[in-house]
Amino acid sequence: MDQLRETLKGHQLRTTTCREDVLSTFITKKNALSHGDLEGALGENYDRVTIYRTLKTFLEKGIIHKVLDDEGLRYALCSHSCSEEKHQHDHIHFKCSECGETNCIENLHIPAVQLPMGYQAQNFNLLIQGTCPKCS
Amino acid sequence: MDQLRETLKGHQLRTTTCREDVLSTFITKKNALSHGDLEGALGENYDRVTIYRTLKTFLEKGIIHKVLDDEGLRYALCSHSCSEEKHQHDHIHFKCSECGETNCIENLHIPAVQLPMGYQAQNFNLLIQGTCPKCS
DNA sequence: AATCCACTTGCAACAGAGTTGCAAAATATT
DNA sequence: AATATTTTGCAACTCTGTTGCAAGTGGATT
User: What letter does residue A136 receive in the DSSP assignment?
Assistant: First the structure.
């Protein structure tokens, strides 16, 4: 529980109960979470707006990153400690069509892609859909 | 202009002016379009709701597919004729951070990825962000 | 532990995106 | 031209996300 305070302090953030609870939710559930998921988990305790603002702050500080699939926007913890300046920008996410969960796949590189002339790539985001180990 | 009617008929759709105009917009502008883009282009002529429903219909019939980036949802024409049953599911999209346009990159395969044990992939969606030929 | 300032929260109100029900209009078929 | 079926426009609504502001809290200082 003190680890939470450490993480927040490490990103120059005041420790508030909402931030601790949101961060802790991301850590215990390991999959990507939408605002709605968090509202479901903590909604009694905090205002909708506060959760939105917490997510925005965590994004800016590099604690979480956006995850997109055709159902909408989710967030997941950044694996290697990202900071405000330095972000790890290549992500692979796996969305299970059975259980609907989306997870980051760590320790896996996106293979190089030969882009046509003139395109300059900055970052890559791969979304794989299929069946996860739990559901197959 | 008659090609539009052919395409619609080919997907068992009645030809209406709205559908023709939406389809024609996708063909002339070649990049991915959001509902807002279409509303901007044709908004005087058709109701918001009608454009939403047209997009939904086109999606179901496999005429267009979803394209996602962190700014939201867009749609783009399916390259090889997709049908209601058979969809080409691997897509590479390039989003230019300068001009904001998102385009499908055709004729380019996503290299194989070694997924951890237990994961079964069905389709791949790669979003590359960077600078496009026009802007570099 | 009391004070202070800056930051954070809750509330209300708003803006935008997307959906649904229903009556009127348009399409394709005979 | 008449018909059944599909599509459209309108109104109303839901869901997601944002903004301004006053009240409350965190944490550094004394």
Answer: -
Q: Centre a 10 Å sphere on the Cβ of residue B113 and count the other Cβ atoms it contains.
A: 17
Please enumerate residues of A whose Cβ is less than 8 A from a Cβ of B: 66, 68-70, 92, 94, 97, 105, 108, 110-133, 136
pLDDT digits (tens, 9 = 90+) for B29-86: 989 999 999 999 997 899 999 999 999 999 999 999 999 888 889 999 987 655 555 6
Q: Which of B98, B113, B136 to mutate to test the interface with A (most CBs of A within 10 A)?
A: B113
**Nucleotide closest in space to A13 (CA vs C1'):** C7
Q: Could you report the per-residue pLDDT of B101-130, keeping only the tens digit for each?
A: 999 998 888 888 889 999 999 989 999 999
DSSP character string of B76-127 = EE-SS---SS-----EEEEEETTT--EEE--S-PPPP--PPTT-EEEEEEEE
| Distance of alpha carbon B74 from alpha carbon B59, whole angstroms | 11
In DSSP notation, A43-112 reads: TTTS-HHHHHHHHHHHHHHTSEEEEEETTEEEEEE-SS---SS-----EEEEEETTT--EEE--S-PPPP
> Which residue has its C-alpha nearest to nucleotide C18's C1'?
B52
CA of B70 to C1' of C24 (A): 40
Percentage of residues of chain B with pLDDT beyond 70: 92
Residues A29 and A11: their CA atoms lie apart, in Å, by 21
Return the SS3 of A33. Answer: strand
CATH of domain A2-135: 1.10.10.10
In chain B, what residues touch A97 (CB-CB under 8 Å)? 122
**pTM over the 0.90 mark:** no
Write out pLDDT tens, residues A47-75: 999 999 999 999 999 999 999 988 889 99
